Amino acid sequence: MADKIKLVVAFMLVTAGIAGFYALRDSSAVVKLVVILAGFLLAASVVWTTEPGKRLFLFGKGAVAEAKRVVWPSRKETVQTTGVVLLFAVVMALFLWAVDASLLWMVDKLMGRE
Q1: Residue 24: how many CB atoms within 10 A of its CB?
Q2: Where in the chain are the domains?
Q3: DSSP string spanning 35-55?
Q4: Rounded distance, CA 39 to CA 64, Å?
């Protein structure tokens, strides 16, 4: 029950930050940015104290660690793969155009239009 109350408080803090952003429409952009960031940061700190929040932050930490283990392709590999994909798309487009044109020609012949 306490977690649910904390989540509602976090939602209210986010809402207050957004409302403050619009309430201060005549203020400078920096002030509006600080207000909205304060609302989000306070909400994040409240969510951090809940069990679902702790699981969420642990999941995010694991996702970052997993992304660091990924072997990213080099620039050369990326350019080569992009070239192959584009070549395949062009060849496939030409093939589908040829099939479409031949079917159109056959239908025209069957209908006696030529």
Answers
A1: 15
A2: 1-70, 73-114
A3: HHHHHHHHHHHHHHTSHHHHH
A4: 25
d(CA 94, CA 102): 12
Alpha helices by DSSP H, listed for 49-74, are: 51-69
Which one, of 59, 69, 61, 51, lies nearest residue 3 by Cα?
A: 51
Please say if the pLDDT value at position 11 is more than 90: yes
Q: By the 8 A CB rule, do 46 and 9 touch?
A: yes
| Structural tokens at position 76 | 């050369």
* pLDDT tens-digit series, residues 17-53: 999 999 988 889 899 999 999 999 999 999 999 998 8
CB atoms within 10 A of CB 47: 21
Q: What is the pLDDT of residues 54-78, one digit of tens each?
A: 998 999 999 999 999 999 899 999 9
